[in-house]
Amino acid sequence: MAIGSPFGLEQTVTQGIVSGKGRVIGSGPYDDFIQTDASINPGNSGGPLINMKGEVIGINAAINPSGQGIGFAIPIDLAKNHYPPTGAKGILSPGDAWHEFRDDSGPPKILV
């Protein structure tokens, strides 16, 4: 399940399956993505990817614009190890925390 606010539509939930792990998409040293067919669109970036047990397994981060329905999430262990919680409530700000994953050079497109 992917949660976010795609195209400004708040509190949107989509579902799909994990179709691959350890995907390399040309995003530098953090290339270890979870591939899913849950809809990830602009605005979902930074939202959680959740398994059937209700556990956060990743952070929605990227799509492949040339491949319909192919999305990528940063594994939660990588996210927790690279970005320890910040702020008064221990909350990461997606606009700040995920800027290192941005890549405007071409597919796949990182959504931040």
Labels describing this entry:
112 residues, mainly beta, single chain, disordered C terminus
User: What is Rg?
Assistant: 13 Å
Q: In percent terms, what proportion of residues is strand? A: 25-35%
Principal-axes geometry comes out as: globular
Average pLDDT works out at 75
Give the structural class. mainly beta
Helix content: under 10%
DSSP E strands, number: 8
| H and E string | EEEEEEEHHE
Unreliable runs: 91-112
The rounded distance between the terminal residues' Cα atoms is: 19 Å
Tally of DSSP helical segments? 2
Question: In this structure, how is the largest beta sheet organized?
Answer: 6 strands, antiparallel
Protein model, in words:
The protein is mainly beta and 112 residues long. It is built from 2 helices and 8 strands; from the N terminus they run βββββββααβ. The chain has helices at residues 76-82, 94-97, and strands at residues 2-4, 12-14, 18-23, 33-36, 48-50, 56-63, 71-75, 109-110. Strands 3, 4, 5, 6, 7 and 8 form a 6-stranded antiparallel sheet that branches. A two-stranded antiparallel sheet has the order 1-2. A hairpin with a 5-residue loop joins strand 5 and strand 6. The two termini are 19 Å apart. Mean pLDDT is 75; it is low at 91-112.
